[in-house]
Amino acid sequence: MTEMTVAANDATNAAYGMALEDIDVSNPVLFRDNTWHPYFKRLREEDPVHYCKSSMFGPYWSVTKYRDIMAVETNPKVFSSEAKSGGITIMDDNAAASLPMFIAMDPPKHDVQRKTVSPIVAPENLATMESVIRQRTADLLDGLPINEEFDWVHRVSIDLTTKMLATLFDFPWDDRAKLTRWSDVTTALPGGGIIDSEEQRMAELMECATYFTELWNQRVNAEPKNDLISMMAHSESTRHMAPEEYLGNIVLLIVGGNDTTRNSMTGGVLALNEFPDEYRKLSANPALISSMVSEIIRWQTPLSHMRRTALEDIEFGGKHIRQGDKVVMWYVSGNRDPEAIDNPDTFIIDRAKPRQHLSFGFGIHRCVGNRLAELQLNILWEEILKRWPDPLQIRVLQEPTRVLSPFVKGYESLPVRINA
Ligand code: HEM
User: Fold this and answer.
1) Which of 44, 170, 183, 380 could make an SS bond with 258 (beta carbons 3.0 to 4.6 A apart)?
2) Distance from the CA of 23 to the center of ligand 1, in angstroms?
3) CA 25, 31, 32 angle in degrees (round to 5)?
4) What is the pTM assigned to this prediction?
């Protein structure tokens, strides 16, 4: 038995050996150690709407089946996203949530703001950016080391998402690392190595506000161009936004597209190494890239969950959820629910309905940037395949190091080697 199989067996024994009521799937260690599977499997089978009475984030409900997650998502009158109710992740008290972001608002305000911003990332607008994204991606891949070990996360995923964000905003190139910093600062747990306190978080986000206000002022008085800031500054629906709304939307666009896309870039390489026959299928038929990209996003599930707060008492899944209770929709579990997805633990690049997954959420908050994320990943894989068409030319050399978080599901590092 390999080391990995032993770890998986240990996790299964632990998950099935404990009392059901003691299961706490918010424990970040489960995600860092990649041992979350059997805990969610057991909950789906034995207690799909499960109450955890104590965790490092306090008590919460877990919704683990695909259909139940859709039911929560489509009932925003009862299941609120509002920042004042507690927000959209299992972690409460993030000071960044005080910025007006429509991801943490309920209707009607959410709907108005979403309608205002969404045309900015509509496919027609993105198509105009495609050639720049492709050029930057190609340049980055051409500069990678060949026949030697390097870290895919830093050399490709972080570098490329940072460059892509800078491209989307036409952000001053030499300052682009600031974008990654502001994204990390927004989502970090204080004391976890990135920020020490909520005060520090807000101070850094104020620098972000000042910087972006300056860019707005330059662009509102210049000819319209194809970057997200110019589009907002010149669009009738967005040009009169209040300053804090502008900042809220900027931060949402930075954070929304950063970790998620980054971790999908790494997850794809890992999945294809685990399922090399799928890479063979892909090399034989590159037209499968777009369905593979959807499968990567399902298989990775870059955000493990979104959270809601019950605004009233409700019977749900045979349980009595009370007003004020925290309700966590575990996309990571819904995406592995065999009642919704055939053979869900297998990575299959030519599924019949590849876009049927929960990684982008569902209902009124479904990810605004989903087409943009898919476009970026499509370009990346088209360019990779042109250069390294042979299966396993990009070899994963060791297990990745995974992020310690019940929210961002991703990687710290993935050692690889590209064989010429
Ligand atoms: C693979 C990449 C991505 C994943 C997995 C992802 C995932 C998500 C999820 C789970 C939600 C919440 C859905 C819900 O509550 O039902 C969301 C919302 C959102 N995402 Fe993404 N996202 C990705 C890429 C992007 C990109 C590239 C952008 C923009 C640049 C973006 C912008 C947003 C915005 C603005 C919202 C708020 C929508 C609303 O509340 O109405 N996302 N995303």
Assistant:
1) 183
2) 28
3) 140
4) 0.94
